[in-house]
């Protein structure tokens, strides 16, 4: 895997852990660990966190590109 994908996975794992209480996104092959029942409220929180993270990353990329063009 490349660095960008690794960073994305780390961010998603962090969101899953903080909002859903999921320690890892790695499959174990055990249904009791690989499948979760979560509330709609918790799902909405996780999706909102991922969306917000995407906005922040996008803004940083645009700002960096703008600074590069201006220099």
Automatic annotation (TrEMBL):
Location of the DUF6900 domain = 9-55
| Pfam families named in the record | DUF6900
Under which name does UniProt file this protein?
Answer: DUF6900 domain-containing protein
Q: Which organism is it from?
A: Paraburkholderia sartisoli
């Amino acid at each position: 895997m490349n660095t960008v994908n690794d960073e994305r996975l780390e961010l998603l794992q962090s969101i899953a852990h903080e909002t859903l209480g999921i320690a890892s996104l790695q499959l174990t092959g055990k249904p009791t660990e690989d499948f979760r029942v979560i509330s709609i409220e918790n799902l909405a929180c996780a999706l909102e966190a991922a969306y917000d993270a995407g906005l922040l990353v996008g803004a940083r990329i645009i700002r960096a590109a703008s600074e590069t063009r201006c220099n």
